[in-house]
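Contributing new records

If you add data, match the layout below exactly. Sequence lines come first and carry their own label; structure lines follow with theirs. Keep one chain per record. Anything else will be rejected by the validation script.
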Amino acid sequence: MFPLNDNGMISGLLCGVLFGYVLENAGFGSPVKLSAQFRLRDWAVFKVMFTAIVVAAVGLYALRFLGFLRPDSIAVPQAALVGAAFGGALVGAGFAIGGYCPGTSVAGVFSGRIDAIVFIVGVVAGTAAFSGLYGATLKSLKAGGLIAEGDTFADAYEISDPVMIGILVAALIAVFYLGSWFERRKGGPVTAQEAVEGACPLS
């Protein structure tokens, strides 16, 4: 048996390759386009990612409603709110400064961008540090009561799934409306030429 077949690693690897291909072809492998979202000039990333969230939420709810998916078949991890906030701030800062997140940095490396290699090194070092500190950090968070078991937005705020989906759809519409408004005011989204010129190629 192929060694990567355990725990669905082959399908995960295949999905990762396809995801990276789509990212690069959409221009999301360019740090210029990605950093432009923090200046509110280019909302493509916001629009794409938020659309994916809403589509996934609607799809999962529909599958559960139609009986194709058991409610307990999807595990919701522990919600370490303080840790998530701190980690999100660090990832966001790195994203804003350098224009890469872990996924797009991999796409950038395979597209020949030398600056993406720096981020890959940071991802590996950060992952190693996280693994080493995870046990002690988890105990501290549990002792301080800062971990909630399996919280979703619907659970945390005691609202029904259809209402939650309605809120997400309304937020998605707002993202598209506000994004288009900001893009018009700031001279339009990043062009393909700007994205290429702002890259740091290996050759």
